[in-house]
Structure formats: structure tokens, C-alpha cells
Amino acid sequence: FDAAMSQPAKLRIILQDHDIRRLDLPSGIPDTVDELHSLVQQTFQIEGSFALHFKDADFGDYFSLNSVNDVKDKDTLKVVHVLESPMVTLTLTNLDSSCPSGTESAIYPQSDSCSSGSQDTVILSSPEHMTHRSQCWPVEFPIPRFTYNTELVLASGNEAFEKEGILLSPTTILPDMLEKLADTIYQYVAYPTSAQLNHVAEALIQKHPCLREPGSFNGCYGWQQRLKYKMANYRCKLRTLGCPELEVNSLKKKRAHEKAAAKNIKKPRKAEVNYLPPHPQGETEESLEQVRLDLLSEVKKRNNSNNISEKMARTFSIRRQEVVNLAPPVDAFKERWPALFDVAQIREEFKRITTINLEATFMAKLDQYCPKLMDLVSSRGGAAKLKIQQIKETLLEDHTIERRREVAIRCMVVYLGEKEDDLFKEYLDAKALNRDLAGEVMKIMVNKATSTSDPANATIVIEGTEVLSGLDIPRACALLMGLIYALNLSYPTQLRHTFEVFQKLLLELDGLKASPKVMSLKQKLLL
User: Which pairing describes strands 76-81 and 9-16: parallel, antiparallel, or unpaired?
Assistant: First the structure.
């Protein structure tokens, strides 16, 4: 058994339905479940409590992992997050005749005069009120459970469909179904795309086949249209309740020359999950502005990352309102939020917006596609082929993983018919960098004066402002994507396909819908 443990192994790790990784174990499978648990947690930077489940070959299903004897080379493990029990605080008070009775005492809180001399307090702890979404669009849409009467009708309809092929007319249960479906959709997105609505409709008729529509080309087109109009009504209802994600598009919030219902709609366009979240419970613009002012002094202190992270998470909603509603210049925004322009905080901000780990996901997918991509770009002809050969020759200087990733990115830009000079620009010294800053809208500046052994030679420049430096080029590309999301920026037109690949292939955000050129590349990489 010890000899088997020392053999190199690799495992397939399912972090989420949309996030499956590979774990290489050069020293073999660890001796205990705790060691394997810690290794998975550290490798993939998993936060919170979780358990590991292994896929049993006999049953074809997942079981709790209690012994490493159940794990072999190339097995599949699944990360199952464990939710901590919610806790609340209950105050038990003895009531006497001096306290008001009836309806009034049930509605209004008791005054101190109505309390007994001693109070028994049971502390069960209270979870923080969640004000933003915690997951992106699922691979398999979960059809919610409807009201009891609706479920009875559907169960009867499904039974009749299986026995006699009779379809159900859902007229009486339609309002309840659409309301529950709209509520579930809104847990993921406020403005679902046609593809997402079709995804919901297909999941609905798969779970309840009696709801299929005769004459429809896919059996659910009518459901897709019903959901489309229901979501529009659902958004109107939430807008009247002051939901900031929707209220921002009301006519009274628009400028005079934009007072048209369909003009300048502010909504997620790059698969943002939390585009414009509400303020945390109990917070106001004034209180969050004070936290922002506190952050200005916190960033000047050493070893203060925990306090900065806590305050940045707390002010997420007001920061999003600022970048979405006001679209301030990058230099002005950097003065107001200097803490954001840090590698760790960009990662956290991107995760708050998309629920995705920025660098880990970007690099993992880039490494996965790299061998196939290098073979694919070699098939190009003409001037593109000569350019790709020149880029590949840089691998002869340095065979590090950073260099391989850089070459893959540069070759991909050329393969897509775009110019790498539009993304990268070389400079020789700080004086040349400062001279060129003002004219750059979005660029990764590369210092060619550094040695090939030092890959940290890239600087990110946005709107003439240096925002990050001391990065290798692949990491700079990943963090540039994080900044684009954090600052709510648009992709450069001349590099739209390159950034679309970054988003939809390397970060797997809205990957089901892509331009023909990017979809063609994706299909070739997956062959």
C-alpha cells in the first residue's frame, strides 16, 4: 500500500458544475483524508467548510470519502460545500400583568418597564444578510418546487402523459409556475438572454414532459416567450420596490437626452452576476462613504490586508453604483479607491462580480488549451504564419511556464486576425514609459530592458494611467480582465475577439454564446 501511495497520481476534482480541475500528485496520493483535504483546499484556494466525495465504480454515484483506500489514480473527487447552521439570538422575557396586552403588544417592542428583572438569552448567532448573488448561471437549471396544488396537477399530468401521451393544458396553474420560475431566474440574472430562457424552458419540459407544446419546433418555444414577458413584468415590480439593479434604468434616473425606455440600458453585458447589488442591510450611502474615507487611511498602514479586505467587501455596492452610474475616469477613481488597484483586491472584486476565481481559472484553462492551441496556430498561412514563427522563436530563449503562456497568448491574437501590438507595447526605460502613457487607452507595456530570467516586466495602463506593474504577461492579461470588470469597461474594438476568448474560453463566462470566429476556435480546441 505504501508503495502505491508513493507512485505519482492525478485526480479529477469537481469544484462546481461548471468548474472541473486536474490535481497532479507527484508524490502520490496522501496517506490520510485530512492531508488530501488540505491539499485540495490549498491548491484551489477553497474558502469555507467542505467535504470530499468519491465516485464509486460499482454504483456510479458519489459517496463520502472516509479513507484514501477508496481513491486511485485518475479517480474523480467532488468538493461538497458544508453550510454552517444558521444562528439567531432569542431573548426570553417573563411577562407580567403590567405589560400591554393584545395586538399592540404583539406589534410593538417592549419597553424596559415591561421586562422582568432577569432575562435569559439564547445565542444562536445570526448570519450576515446576503445582498448579492453567490453563484453564476448553472449548467443544469434547477426547476423550483411549485405550490402543493400545482405539483398535484403536474404529477397527474405527467402520469397521463406516460400512459396515454396526453398533454396537459396548464391554464389554471400558469400564474403560479411563471412566478416561481421568474423568482428562480432572478436569483442568477435580472436580464436573462434568449439562450438562458430557452435553457429554463427545456429544463421545465424535461422535468414535466406533460407541458410539451404540440407544433413547437423544440416543444418549448411558447414557454420561452412566456418567460420573456414574465421577466419583464417581474423587473417592473422589483423596480417599483427600489431594486438598484433595475431602478437605474427607470426614466426618472436617466439624463434628459436619454429619456427613452430602450436607450442606454445599464445591464450585465459580460456575464456579470452581481452587476449593481443593493447596499448591505443597515447601511446607507452616508455610512458607506465614511467607510470609504476610512479606507484611504487603512491603505497607508502596513500588514493591514484583513481590514482592507473587510472594508472593500462592505463597500462593494457603493463602488459598483459609482462605476456603473457615473463612469468616472480611471485616474479619478484610483484616487478615490486606491485599495482596489492591488492584485489581491482585483481578484476579490472580480469574484464578487462574477463568483469566479480570476487567476486560477484563467491560468488553468490557458494551460489546458495551450498544447492544442500551439498546434492549431501552426496551420495559419501567409503573413500570419511568419509572425507566429517569430513569436515561437522566443521559446528558444526561455522555456518557463510563463514564457509558454505568453507565446500561446501572442500566437492566439495573431490567429484571430488581430494585432498583438494593439495589446502589447514595448519600452526600454521608465522615461519612455512615462512619455507613452498619455496616448494609451488600454495596453500592457512590456519592459524589454529586463533580462529573460525576470518575467515580471509588464505594466497595465488604462486611460493613460499606470494601474499595476511588476507582472508577467499572462498574469497581466488575467488581471486586465479583472480590471475591465471592476471598472465596468468595454473591450477595445480592435481586440474584441481576443478579449472574447479571454472571457468565454479562459474564464468560461457566457461561453454558450460567442461570435462565429470564437466559436470556431472553441470547437477546434475541444476536438
Answer: parallel
Contact between 54 and 71 under an 8 Å Cβ cutoff? The reply is yes
pLDDT (mean) for 187-214: 93
Taking the C-alpha atoms of residue 445 and residue 468, their distance in angstroms, rounded to an integer, is 10
Report whether 458 contacts 294 (CB < 8 A). no
Answer for the pair 87, 123: CB distance below 8 angstroms, yes or no.
yes
* Rounded (10°) CA dihedral 308, 309, 311, 314: 170
Closest among 481, 495, 185, 189 to 357, alpha carbons compared: 481
Question: Partners of 14 in the beta sheet?
Answer: 20, 78
Report DSSP state, residue 113: G
Of the pLDDT bands very low, low, confident and very high (cuts 50, 70, 90), residue 136 is confident
141 or 249, which is more confident: 141
- Give the Cβ contact number of residue 335 at 10 Å: 11
d(CA 50, CA 246): 35
Question: CA-CA distances (angstroms) from residue 181 to 145, 508, 521?
Answer: 9, 25, 34
Helix (H) or strand (E) holding 361: helix 358-377
C-alpha span between 402 and 274 (Å, rounded): 31
- The SS3 assignment for 174 reads helix
By three-state DSSP, how is residue 474 classified?
A: helix
pLDDT of residue 111: 36
Pairing of strands 19-25, 9-16: antiparallel
The model's pLDDT over 91-120, given as tens digits with 9 standing for 90+, comes to 444 444 433 333 333 333 333 333 333 333
φ/ψ (deg, to 5) at 282: 90, -5
CA distance 453 to 429: 18
pTM, two decimal places: 0.70
User: What gap in Å lies between CA 355 and CA 136, rounded to an integer?
Assistant: 7
Residue 188: closest CA among 154, 153, 141, 246: 141
Within 10 angstroms of residue 159's Cβ, the number of other Cβ atoms is 12
Neighbour-count burial for 280-318, b at 16+ CB within 10 Å, e otherwise: beebeeeebeebbeebeebbeeeeeeeebeebbebbbbb
